[in-house]
Design goal:
CATH architecture: 3-Layer(aba) Sandwich
CATH class: Alpha Beta
Order of helices and strands: HHHEHEHHEEHEEEHEE
Helix content: 25-40%
Distance between the termini: 31 Å
Radius of gyration: 17 Å
Keywords: Methyltransferase, S-adenosyl-L-methionine, Transferase
Number of strands: 9
GO molecular function, one term: N-terminal protein N-methyltransferase activity
CATH topology: Rossmann fold
Largest sheet: 7 strands, mixed
Shape: globular
Pfam families: Methyltransf_PK
Number of domains: 1
EC number: 2.1.1.244
Number of helices: 8
Enzyme class: transferase
Structural class: alpha/beta
Strand content: 15-25%
Bound molecules: S-adenosylmethionine
Length: about 250
């Protein structure tokens, strides 16, 4: 999730085997305690609304770059089918994915969040398609997607689960499909992943992400750091990765 670096309360640190600390039940309990709103999704930042605006604008420009790098992918107009993975209440779908895809499915394990999505105007208008109330580790795609967008949630998966998830996504992409991850990065001085007891998640290093993507048979076609966050807030860096199959 988007996180501020808290210097007064050191984060639980991390050995290389830090993902052993992940406890799905504790994560779901934490997320159930968060209000089902867009700001709730950014709760660890105190729900700063400006954060979301900067994030969504950066995502739009990142996707445009990625589309230009995929041969035969249209660079103008909407993609046909996307999916928002770890969607929460649909902050990313509402502020970005619905503007670049005709329909957007959603994958999210917390029922009170998917309930909000079910009741949204985007669902009523048909822009939000199928809503899967399930964690991404248990989600089995039932169709092909032009865009699979996974943001601020893979810290809830162990490394091996993330590799398998990436493989399943790879097989669920259309010919010109793009898989995007947008996540916080570890700032651990020893270069390790960091464990966060608040929501029982792991914040990975850039190197760990790249290892996982390679092991899952994916190439990073473009990657960039999100810019534009005020320096005064000492936020964890956020990096986007656009992936395509090596095959
Ligand atoms: C920081 S919020 C981000 C929500 C949304 N991606 C956004 O950027 O607004 C993290 C989300 O991950 C969800 N989550 C927790 N465990 C998950 C899992 N195993 N698979 C997918 N999502 C999970 C939480 O319920 C929560 O909605």
């Amino acid at each position: 999730m988007p996180q501020a670096i808290n210097e007064e309360q050191p984060r639980d640190h991390a050995s290389p085997a830090v993902d052993h600390g992940i406890d799905p039940a504790a994560s779901i309990k934490y997320w159930n305690s968060v209000p089902p709103t867009a700001n709730g999704m950014l709760a660890a930042l105190g729900g700063y609304p400006w954060y979301s605006r900067i994030d969504l604008r950066g995502s739009k420009s990142f996707l445009a770059k990625a589309r230009r790098l995929v041969p035969t992918c249209t660079t103008e107009g909407k993609l046909s089918t996307g999916v928002d993975c770890g969607a929460g209440v649909g902050r990313v779908t509402e502020g970005f994915l619905s503007q670049v895809c005709e329909t957007v499915d959603a994958v999210e394990p917390v029922e009170k969040f998917t309930q909000t999505l079910h009741e949204s105007t985007l669902k009523a208008s048909g822009v939000v398609g199928v809503i899967y109330t399930v964690g991404i580790e248990a989600w089995r795609p039932e169709k092909k997607y032009d865009l699979i967008w996974t943001q601020f949630c893979v810290g809830h998966l162990k490394d091996w689960q993330l590799i398998e998830y990436v493989r399943r996504c790879r097989d669920a992409l259309t010919e010109t499909g793009i898989l995007v991850f947008k996540e916080n990065l570890s700032t651990d001085p020893n270069g390790d992943d960091m464990y966060d007891g608040l929501d029982s998640s792991v914040t990975r290093t850039d190197a760990k992400f790249r290892d996982i993507f390679r092991d899952a048979g994916m190439n990073v076609i473009v990657s960039e750091l999100q810019t534009g966050f005020p320096k005064t807030f000492k936020l964890l860096p956020v990096r986007s990765y656009a992936l395509r199959s090596k095959a």
